[in-house]
């Protein structure tokens, strides 16, 4: 495999869908929160993305079976059209072109699914545990809308990796979006911050079903 391979199981017909990404990063806030979303929103797997730009190892499951690193794309139409992406890893930090390539492939597929809004998730180190959620976005209007929901402005910093780059490239394509960030105290896996992020996503996406609790 010398190029990105997208294995599509089925491609639904969606309109005005929201694209949410959960990727391994500091505290693993994003991937944990989106895993919870997929589990509690009756999400269905529609595609898997494989790329030679990802690290050179496989993941071995509890049954001893090897699996290539991948990005899973799932959809839920439980209460809104929601597309969710969960990644096993990010490209190596020294391979900057790989980040742009993977982001481009992800956004190409999101475009085919008529996603008109993108939400990326991440964390940033904090000394003390906090429940606040912070936001950065593609426009002042969008940022203001989310601040009105009770989040704080994330300013003067950087969003490193795919979570930031996806948002920046989406803006160039004319796709609106935000990055939600949670302060984390556990750099490996901050479960409290991730669950707090999940609860805010439920509120933002207007999920009211008891299945989402």
What number of structural domains do the residues give? 1
- Rg of Cα set: 16 Å
Unreliable stretches (pLDDT < 50, length at least 5) are none
Q: Can you tell me the CATH architecture?
A: 3-Layer(aba) Sandwich
Cα end-to-end separation: 41 Å
Q: In order across it, which strands form the biggest sheet?
A: 1-3-6-7-2-8-11-9-10
Q: Profile the largest sheet.
A: 9 strands, mixed
Q: Which H/E pattern describes the elements?
A: EEHEEEEEHEEHEHEH
Q: What is the CATH domain class?
A: Alpha Beta
CATH superfamily: PAC-like subunit
Beta-strand share of residues: 25-35%
Mean pLDDT: 91
Kindly state the number of beta strands.
11
CATH topology: Rossmann fold
**Helical stretch count?**
5
What structural class should be given to the helix and strand makeup?
A: alpha/beta
Could you estimate the helical fraction of the residues in percent? 25-40%
Question: What is the global morphology?
Answer: globular
Summarize the structure.
This protein is 29% helix and 29% strand.
Describe this structure in words.
It is a single chain. The chain has 213 residues and is α/β, with parallel strands linked by helices. It has one domain (5-207): Rossmann fold (3-Layer(aba) Sandwich). Helices cover 29% and strands 29% of the residues. It is globular. The termini are far apart.
């Amino acid at each position: 495999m010398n190029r990105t391979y997208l294995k599509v199981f089925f491609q639904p017909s969606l309109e005005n869908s929201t694209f949410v990404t959960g990727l391994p990063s500091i505290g693993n806030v994003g991937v944990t929160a989106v895993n919870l979303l997929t589990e509690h929103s009756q999400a269905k797997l529609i595609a898997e993305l494989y790329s030679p730009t990802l690290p050179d190892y496989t993941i071995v499951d509890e049954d001893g079976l090897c699996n290539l690193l991948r990005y899973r794309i799932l959809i839920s139409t439980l209460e809104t059209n929601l597309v969710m992406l969960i990644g096993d890893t990010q490209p190596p930090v020294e391979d900057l072109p790989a980040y742009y390539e993977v982001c481009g492939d992800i956004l190409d597929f999101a475009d085919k699914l008529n996603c008109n809004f993108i939400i990326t998730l991440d964390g940033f180190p904090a000394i003390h545990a906090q429940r606040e959620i912070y936001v950065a976005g593609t426009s002042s209007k969008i940022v203001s809308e989310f601040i009105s929901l009770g989040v704080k402005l994330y300013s003067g910093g950087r969003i490193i990796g795919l979570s930031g780059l996806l948002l920046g490239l989406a803006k160039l394509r004319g796709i609106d979006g935000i990055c939600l960030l949670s302060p984390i105290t556990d750099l490996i896996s901050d479960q409290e911050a991730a669950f707090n992020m999940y609860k805010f996503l439920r509120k933002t996406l207007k999920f009211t079903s008891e299945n989402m609790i």
